[in-house]
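Researcher: Here's the sequence for the chain we discussed earlier.
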Amino acid sequence: QVQLVESGGGLVQAGGSLRLSCTASGRTFSTYTMGWFRQAPGKEREFVSAISSRSYYADFVQGRFTISRDNAKNTMYLQMNSLKPEDTAVYYCARYYRGSVDVGEYDLWGQGTQVTVSS
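Model: Thanks. This is the structure I predict for it:
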């Protein structure tokens, strides 16, 4: 059974950087569009970024985050720079299923990794 496992979260000061990883089991990783979402306490989950043959970003990213993937390693990354306290959330990776990449359906989710940005 395919699983997604995130890693790379942690505590960082405002202005700092983190790189999140999402590793998938299974041999068909390269054929899927993959995405990153986040959920802050008391807020709904929101789209952050997605990657297929091109990259997609939420407006709030504003050039601070970069999504990438290494299909040979079945791994997707999210490089986050210039982090702000409002970026604090649990970050999830997910496998796209259908619809719009930002509000469509994703059919497989990881367990999440906590990112905390201190001011």
